[in-house]
Amino acid sequence: MNKKKVLSTVRYVASTTPVFSLSEITAYFDEPMTVSRIYGIIRPELTRLGLTAKENAGDVEISRIVLPQQYLLNREEQERTEAFFTARSIPAALDRGIGCYLAKKVGRDWTDPVILERLRRAIVAQKDDYWKPSHKRSLQYTKGYSVLGYLAYHFPVYLMQTERLLAMLARDGLLKNTMTILDAGTGPGVVPLAIADFYSRLDGARATVWSVERSEEHLEAFTFLAREFVKKSAGVEIMPPIKADLRDVNISDVPEKIDLLIFSNVLNELPDSTLDTRAGIVARLAERLAPEGSVLIVEPADEENAKRMRSLTIALATYGLSIHAPCSFIWGTPCTAPRCWSFESAPAIRMTTVMEALARCEDSYRYVNTDIKYSYAVLRKDGQRRSTYQISPGSKFLRLSRIHLHVGKRVNVAGLKMSGELGDARSHVFKICDGTARTPVYAVLPSYHITPKNDLITSAPYGTVLELRNVLVRYNTGHDAYNLLVSRNTEIRIPGLATGYGRRSG
To answer: What's the whole-model pTM score?
Structure first.
């Protein structure tokens, strides 16, 4: 076995999880590899790789070296976090809290058919407003039943996706032992409450959470839920929200040296906001970032909002903020994000108690919101990136900016998997981007062409760099896009990872 392949495989696995055992990766290699043989190869290189090793009952546990203040989840914390995501339910205390707050606000049992019907009307009105062109939407969610409808319909999904994003930041090594976090436009406290729940499964991490919100009704809901749900022993201190509009918040009211600045499903809702306006709001608050701090921007996964968010992240480069993830510019050239509809997806959540009650009617689908799909970007001041992979000079990969010259030909390409499943069981479709494409490009894998050599396209996580060898280029006239047909003769790899076809799970 080539030493370089062993080292690159260990390096890659360590980038995806902070702790693993060598026995877990023996199946990654094409030829049989024992734990002792792998350990013998990597042992002299551990320090250079930023790893440590601990021998244990015939196995070897590999851990990333934790930098000062960096907080990486240990194995038990990872297991608790994964169990939470597997359950797919919001915390029971929050589920009850939402019902209690509804009853408090309406002055009677929230299961009253009259109350449920009012909630349904509020949800439908919000959805109708949302799907209007952006310049005609109001999307205020600031008073009365609009706030209650938001709690019933949007809150549960946004809470779960925030927890998934926090887990992602932990895997990327972007959490610290002690964090100062600011949630810009908190609404009824989705993000602070998600942070409190996420940190309740951690053993030693601490966070102080600040927020900005202008709506009195949202602040009332936030205060009630935080009082009922957040335990003082959870390692999280939620500060009194700053009552202000994001567009003119007094910067001196905002804490200094913020470790994590979050804009969750809020920038798209600012009325009459231009790209420059949104970029200015982010940049102004980012002035309070710590030198090693991160900005997390999250928006809905629909085409309009996802594209606007990508354009925003590119525009923020002029303010000194560079993209850490999910994008990676593997050709070393800047991207203008043309027509970039990219999003992450995760398993649907279970319905809350309130949602189940709302769904007991005709057209119940109108009141159920369980799908998790979102667009996100992590930005940094220090230029740190999740992936440092670059196309090496002389490599035989086609830039996607030149794909129009190769229609009908078989080519090799490298790029990031930048979408969840866009197809179906008969034909899998995923967006592919290398940072140069002027027209959208998609990898298409018909189910009858799936082989152990190409099915990595279906299991690789969002944002993974992939090499696709021997794909057929086709032009899709109806969508003005290019398809890369993945066939039985196509080979798909993660750069630097020993093949191990069909053995890696997402």
So the answer is: 0.86
